[in-house]
Structures are given as C-alpha cells and as structure tokens.
Write the structure tokens for this entry.
Amino acid sequence: MSKHKIVRGGVASLATATLLFTAVGCSVPETSDSDSGGSGETVKIGVLAPMTGPGSADGVQMKQGAELIVDELNKAGGVGGKQIDLEVYDVKDQSADAVSAGATSFTSDSAMAAAFTAYASSSNFEIDIFSEAGMPYILGGNTAQTQGIVEKDPDAYPLTWSVAPSYGGYNTDLPDRLDAWDEDGTFPLRNRTAYLISSDNPFSNGIADGLTENLTKRGWDVIGPEVVPFGDVDDWNAQLGKIRQADPSLVLNLDYQVANAAKFVTQFQQNPTDSLLFSQYAPSVPEFMELAGADAEDLLFNLAISPLPGTEKTDKILEQYQEKFGEEAGLSAVLLYEEIRLWAQVAEDVGDPFDKEAVGAAFGELEEDVAFGAVKFDHDTHLALSGDEYVPTVTFQVQDGKRLLIAPEKYAQTEFRVPAWTE
C-alpha cells in the first residue's frame, strides 16, 4: 500500500525559503530511497494543496482525489514496477512563502518523480521552481497565469502542463448566454446593469476584467468591480447595500473562497434584488452546498473545466470517491485523480517514471478522454484545448438542492429556471 504523508508549510520569506525550509518544520520525511534517485522499490509523487486556511475545502479534495488514484494504481502494480508513495504538502494560505517552501521540498528530493496540484499559489510562480529543477509539474488552475508564464518561451517549460484550458470561456460564456435568454424570452432583462464584486487575487481579478470588457461590449453598464481583500469576508452588508441601491439585473461575486461565497449568498437572500445571481467557482465545492443550504437555490455558476455528469469516466470516479470517503467529489478531487492517472499512464509507456524529460515530452503529446472532456494540449501555452469537442465551459444552476448542468446542450441535465426571488 502507498504511504500518504502530509508535510506542513513553513513561513520563510520567498528570498530565503530555499535555504530555510528545513529549519522551519518542512523537512522531507525519510524514506528508503530518498537518496537513491529512484533506485528503491517506491516512486514518490508530491501534491501541493491548501490543507489549512481559506482553501482547505479544496485542499482536502485534492488530497483525497490523489489518494484514490494512488491506491488504485498501487493495487494494480504501481508504475514502472514501483509502488507509488504520495506526499502532500500544505501550502496553507497559498502565500509565496508556503508555496515556495513546498515546491523546494519536492524538487530537492531525488526520489520525487513529479508534482501535482489543482492550484497552489494564485500566480503559479512555482512553475519556474519546478522547471528549473527539471521536475514534471501537472496543474489544473489559474490558467491565465500559466499561459502568461509559458507562452513567452514554451520550450523552456517542457515538463509543465495544465489539464485545464484557457479561462477565456469565463469572459464570454455568461454574456453570450444572457443575450440568448433575453432574445428568446427565457429571461427578459429589465435593464442592462450589472454589479460586479471581485476578490484581490489574479484569478478573480482576471475574470473580472474579462467579464467587464465583454459585458460592456454588449451594452451593459457594469458597476465595479468592487474588490474585496483576499481572505475571510464575513460581512457583505456594505456591498449588498450598494447592490440594492443600484438595482441591477445581474449580480456577480467572483470571490471563489467557499465560506465567503456562501455567506454572500445567504446575506443576499435576506433581502434579494430582482437580479440573476452568479457566483464564481465556489458552488462547485461540495462544502458550499452545506454552508449555503436552501439559500443557494437558483444560483448560477460556470466552470472552464468540470467533471461531465453522466459520462462513464466521471461516474466511475464519483462512485469510487463516495464509497472511499463517504462524501461527494468536487472538481479538485477529480482533477488530481485524472492528473495522476494520466502521468502514471505516460510514465508506464516511457518505462521509467524517473526519466522526467521523456515523461514530460510524452505528457504533452497526450490525446485522452477524461472525466472533463478530451485532453489535447496547445503547445504554445501548455494548456488543454477548450471547446465542446475538447474541454468545454459548462454552466450550472442549483435546483432542488442539486447542482445541475444547464449548458452546453450536449451535456445538459436540465434547463435554466427563473429564480424564485425574481418572479
């Protein structure tokens, strides 16, 4: 069986994290082949995950998704004749210090074959740490940041690949859908005013910029984005007061942290405006539904990458995850499962999981059906290709306590429902 370890993140400064991480409680636990360059009976892989802090709900999902596939692979014989030893490093609040220390912990371990995450930092700066160390780094979040790093010199990042596509769909999908609903009478817009809230991080602010641009092009008056600090936000009454004064047809909250987003929805429902309510990413995390409860009814959200319900691959993962952990799998769990599965498949084909250059090159040539579509990579950005034939942007609405996919039609489970508070 695999050994699953969690290493807690340190607090060294970015400039000194490389030198100091062993002095602040971040040393790598000893293993039988830690100095062997992979000559022992196990091969180590690492996961960067926010096990504590605001992103802990996702972090737990990352860890458990990784555990699910590692145990499955080990029961089938491992990879390259070696059992897989999983190590999870807690990047806490996603600070540069913690992420840098985690990345350095993995790259300094000669028994570590590859590293994975759904997201670790908000800027993906750690890509350079892994690239300079020659370690495969497979990730699934903050694709605008990945693209910004890689596209300047794609050949410098042969071992970095994002199974998630461009977030361009976030900029256009909702505005396009609103126009269609207005035109066909599904949801006639009483005005074209939108109130936009963002969180002070690259992911949220990048989407805010794209939505502002695309809504404005379509004749919307966009108020905001009003940017709230990245971290815990307990009281949304100041923002909600401004929203009630503006009386928009559309309210968007791009704070993706689960507790924050759930509190916003709950406080909005205490005195809702006659508006569609859209939340970014957070509703996809199972914990959100527990926190928001009935207040989440008719809430909209979309994802540039999502497990596609009803497909054989998705159903298999979801069923196994539920059976093993007694809870629902979210996007982060499925991302880690598929990332590690694809890496193991490639490493097995190469014949040696420690031939990192060959594994990285082969990973970039993958064309594989996965739980969230079909993965094929753009070699200019190292992102998965987007689109209905590859990895589609999908829109969900909470209906009767369930998050149901309403678009695109190819994958839809149901149709859009007019929110009860607007009728």
Notes: The CA atoms of residues 25 and 418 lie 52 Å apart. The longest helix spans residues 56-75. The first strand starts at residue 4 and ends at 8.
